[in-house]
Amino acid sequence: MTEVTPGIYWIKLPIDVVGGPAHVNAYLIRGDIGYLLVDCGWNTDSSFSTMHNSLVKNGVGFEEISQILVTHVHPDHYGMAGRIKKLSGATIAMHPIEKDFIEPRYVHMEELLHQTDRMLVDNGVPHDEMVKLRDATVGLEQYTVPTGEFTFRVIWTPGHSSGHLCLYEPEKKILLSGDHILPRITPNISVHPQSIENPLGHYIKSLQEMRQLDAELILPGHDQPFTGLTSRIDEILQHHEQRNRNILATMGGQARTTYQIAREITWGVKSRWHDLPDFHRRMATFETLAHLEMMAAEGKLDRFPQNGIIYYRQN
Ligand SMILES: [Zn+2]
Ligand SMILES: [Zn+2]
């Protein structure tokens, strides 16, 4: 646990899932009547003992946590919320949209899996590959379910998750950015059965709005605290513009499915479709779909069904 700025402590919690980030950040913020905990870590024993040891080392008891804010209900941010609530008696706050995800995602998964199937098939993923991509969810089934001198403004930042929240302290110029803005990786923005319409369009719009914020310290959900908000926002905006250009070039003026396009794009620095594990192939498919839906919403592409499959073509 590191005090990144007076009154805010950074706790780095391990994520024991291969293929994603190795850590997720939780932030403990000192208040008048207890602490505010922002994000909770993956619900595993190693993550819990890291949290427990950090608190003990700094003389903070679980019962001193009076509020929990979850930026979004992905398992790395929401996982231990229930466990910490039990130990602390804290109240849990999150965006109401996120709250509505908990039951279908963590309690009744069948309907969501069925919707995911349909979306993959509709977008041209062949049946045998669809089964692998659908079942590539990472162990979700194990998860059931302004304080003191800081006055945080809660900002709704849809895109990475529909009800994603950021916290902004205008006087201290601090932004807790969750997975909305990360220092080195671009967060996954996907169309999926629970996403709002045109999630990438919403994401880009909220990034552009956040360029106005006067923030000197950004505390992200992964990686290290950083500075330089506007330049990082501009890099992310450019990344998405570049991907739009790649997609249009890949389409070459032809009618193509999301799947056909996703297979041909370069993912990350050097990864091609063949190198990606199933879970990443599914993310790649739904990320491509997010780009296509954004360009369709902007009138750059036409979307039309043919033999029960959705195709896109440049206007
Ligand atoms: Zn996330
Ligand atoms: Zn995350």
Molecular structure report:
Helices cover 38% and strands 20% of the residues. Helix 5 (110-122) runs antiparallel to helix 6 (127-134), helix 8 (229-251) packs across helix 10 (278-297) and helix 9 (258-264) crosses helix 10 (278-297). It has 315 residues and is of the alpha/beta class. The chain has helices at residues 45-57, 75-78, 81-88, 96-107, 110-122, 127-134, 199-210, 229-251, 258-264, 278-297; strands at 2-5, 8-14, 23-31, 34-38, 65-69, 91-93, 153-156, 165-169, 174-178, 217-220, 301-306, 309-314. The chain has a six-stranded mixed sheet. It binds zinc ion (ZN) (2 copies). One zinc ion binds at residues 24, 74, 76-77, 179, 221-222.
Write the layout of secondary structure elements.
Blueprint: E1 2-5, E2 8-14, E3 23-31, E4 34-38, H1 45-57, E5 65-69, H2 75-78, H3 81-88, E6 91-93, H4 96-107, H5 110-122, H6 127-134, E7 153-156, E8 165-169, E9 174-178, H7 199-210, E10 217-220, H8 229-251, H9 258-264, H10 278-297, E11 301-306, E12 309-314
Biggest beta sheet summary: 6 strands, mixed
Name the ligand types.
zinc ion
Task: Estimate the global geometry from the Cα principal axes.
Answer: globular
Strands of the largest sheet, in order across it? Answer: 1-2-3-4-5-6
Order of helices and strands: EEEEHEHHEHHHEEEHEHHHEE
What value does the Rg take, in angstroms? 20 Å
Could you give the count of β-strands?
A: 12
- From the N-terminal CA to the C-terminal CA, the straight-line distance is 53 Å
**Number of helical regions:** 10
Based on helices, strands and strand pairing, what is the structural class? alpha/beta
- Unreliable stretches (pLDDT < 50, length at least 5) are 138-145
What's the mean pLDDT score?
Answer: 89
State which percent range the strand residues make up: 15-25%
Share of helix, binned: 25-40%
